[in-house]
Amino acid sequence: MQNFFASCPRGLEPLLAEDLAAVGGQHIKTVPGGATFAGEWSVCYAANLHSRVAARILWRIAAKGYKKEEDIYQLALAADWPKWFLPTQTMRVDVTAIKCPLKSLDFITLRIKDAVCDRFRRECDIRPSIDTREPDVRVHAFLTADDCTLYVDTSGEPLWQRGLRQKTVDAPLKENLAAGILRLTGWQPGTPLFDPMCGSGTFLLEAAQIAHNIAPGSRRSFAFERLQNFDAEAWRNMRESALAAEKTVAWAQLYGSDISAQAVRAATANLDRAGLLDAVELVSGDILEIEAPKDSGVLVCNPPYGVRLEEQESLAALYPPLGTALKRHFAGWNCYFFTADLRMPKLMRLTPSKKTPLYNGALECRLFEIRMVAGSNRPAKSSSD
Asked: In order of start, what are the domains of the chain with their CATH numbers?
């Protein structure tokens, strides 16, 4: 049994725990921004392959209290790095901290690098090279006020990089955040889904993968494949099983539009490259004018946030007609808006039935749920946050 830590966007920790339990994770405990869990290596492989909301899966190799930099160096020196990877492989070290009393994280990073290299010199007479861009192995250290925990990254590139999206527009959502938002809406395959501000198509790509039972990690490689203890046969069987469970791509009642023709072209190219274009209908259109594609369904979108003052003013002008358009065209739909602009529902003159706090990176946001009542221009009654 090994110990692991899975990271995720803040606000999605309960969904991450569900993902980890689904692949056999044990002793799952959520913390802000992730969850700890235990399991055999097959559980680690499966979490990387199947979790739609995880960002990284880290393998915990050592933890101890510290008072000074030398304590962290000794902790790293004691770890059996040559057992886990080769001195011919490249590496990098990343350090994050909360309330760390030591002065320089850069110096701590350097000391951990020194310790790993010193251990290799002692055991193998050679040391690994440092590659900060595309390392074979990533070592992570997490410091609290009193403790240092060392991890080896099993994911490599972050898990939200599915290997599908090539063309992007301004400020695209990360795929794991989009997948989590879809889960929070309660959308299920077979229900019409519409993104009227689809950008490069992230919500549509995630929904199409869910509808066709495509594991998010089935089209990419992972760092655990480069570790000494990698079980190639177990991984091959797991991945082949996931590929065999996929459904043939077909129309899935997924609709997308955007006022920008460039965005529609980007979304079309991304879906086409992923082999999922047949599942989706894409058109150019203005959210204020476009008709609902069906009598009912789930509308989800990530409108602009308006960081600059002039952007905030233009958004304030957009929201009232947007509220009117929703009443006119989307009665019977459950509408979800993911935004950092907390003025949005009030300026649309609609009362959200739910407000879910989420983070887009460091930016605090809300997922507003607005249920448009069929046969009435009045929004659903408010419930508490």
From this structure: 2-153 (3.30.2130.30), 175-213+247-371 (3.40.50.150)
